[in-house]
Write a structure and sequence with these properties.
Blueprint (H helix, E strand, L loop, with lengths): L13 H16 L4 H6 L4 E4 L1 E2 L11 H10 L2 E5 L2 E2 L2 E2 L8 E5 H31 L6 E3 L9 H10 L13 E3 L1 H7 L2 H11 L6 E5 L2 H10 L3 E5 L3 H14 L4 E5 L7 H6 L4 E3 L2 H4 L7 E2 L2 E2 L1
Parallel strand pairs: 7-12, 8-9, 9-10, 10-11, 11-12
Antiparallel strand pairs: 1-6, 1-14, 2-13, 3-6, 4-5
Length: 292
């Protein structure tokens, strides 16, 4: 599957892309690109996109980029390039063809999206490769850029990761504050079972073996081991496999590229990494325009 194909399904509705493009262009263009209007004629131009500074980036932003260009009046897509050369086997940052003024007006918005989402996909792929062979899957969190969650989560998928909750309405995750306000793990789980739709799974965050045992006795579907060492994760996973074999185990907190392999080898099913979306470095992508 091509990286950009992940942005074609219901995860990122076309109306959402158009709304994002309109808002971003309104913010950047304002009443008009006065520089281009003053210096560039109304004729056509084309601009192959390339990423000379980031040869390993994994672009996942074709549709957002196209939406921005077309909202500004740009035309069809040209061949994709990386570092000035045609890309092999996978589609990436796209060239643009259309009115020269419109391309220049959309340039920054389109490149910002390409750079941001390519960075997320690239970082995700590094985590996925680091844990390869352990059986653990890398998943994201809700620590996304406001307004870009659907796109950033699509970029995580493009990098080989999986998606956690898309929002607070997408699943029950009982964390420390919920436990404190409910009066304990067991009571929080009981209330979740009584008050939530039956199809929603109940996940419980635990920080100790005592909380873990309480969550298992309460019937949690998923256990989130928070800020545990690899040895603590291994002991917790062993306990879960004995007492509740069907329960999914997730690890979170303090995860980085230096620690993720050891955590994965401790046996969890999932490792959630907030850094995929809150700490990814943007790819280096540029757009050079020439007359048609």
């Amino acid at each position: 599957m091509e990286a950009t194909d992940l942005l074609k399904g219901p995860l990122v509705p076309p109306t959402a892309l158009l709304a994002l493009a309109r808002a971003a262009l309104a913010e950047d263009v304002g009443r008009g690109d006065v520089t281009s209007l003053a210096t560039v004629g109304p004729g056509p131009a084309r601009g192959p996109a390339s990423s000379p500074g980031s040869p390993s980036s994994s672009p996942a932003s074709g549709r957002p980029s196209r939406s921005s260009t077309r909202q500004a009046g740009g035309g069809p897509v040209l061949g994709a390039r990386r570092g000035g050369r045609p890309r092999r086997g996978r589609r990436g940052p796209r060239g643009r063809r259309g009115g020269a003024r419109q391309i220049l007006a959309a340039e920054r918005v389109a490149l910002n999206l390409v750079m941001r989402l390519s960075g997320v996909a690239t970082l995700t792929s590094r985590y996925v490769e680091t844990v390869r062979g352990t059986g653990a899957r890398i998943t994201d969190t809700r620590k996304t850029t406001p307004g870009l969650r659907a796109l950033e989560k699509a970029a995580v998928r493009a990098g080989g990761g999986t998606n956690h909750r898309s929002g607070l309405d997408d699943g029950i995750l009982i964390k420390d504050n919920h436990v404190a306000l409910a009066g304990g793990v067991a009571e929080a789980v009981r209330r979740a079972r009584e008050g939530a739709p039956h199809l929603l799974k109940v996940e419980v965050e635990v920080e100790s073996s005592e909380e873990l045992r309480e969550a298992l006795r309460a019937g949690a579907d998923v256990i989130l081991l928070d800020n545990m060492t690899p040895d603590e994760v291994r002991a917790s996973v062993e306990l879960v496999r004995v007492e509740s074999p069907g329960t999914v185990v997730e690890v979170s907190g303090g995860v980085n590229l230096g620690t993720v392999r050891a955590l994965a080898e401790a046996g969890p099913d999932l490792i959630s990494v907030g850094a995929l979306t809150h700490s990814a470095s943007s790819a280096d992508v540029s757009l050079e325009v020439e007359p048609c």
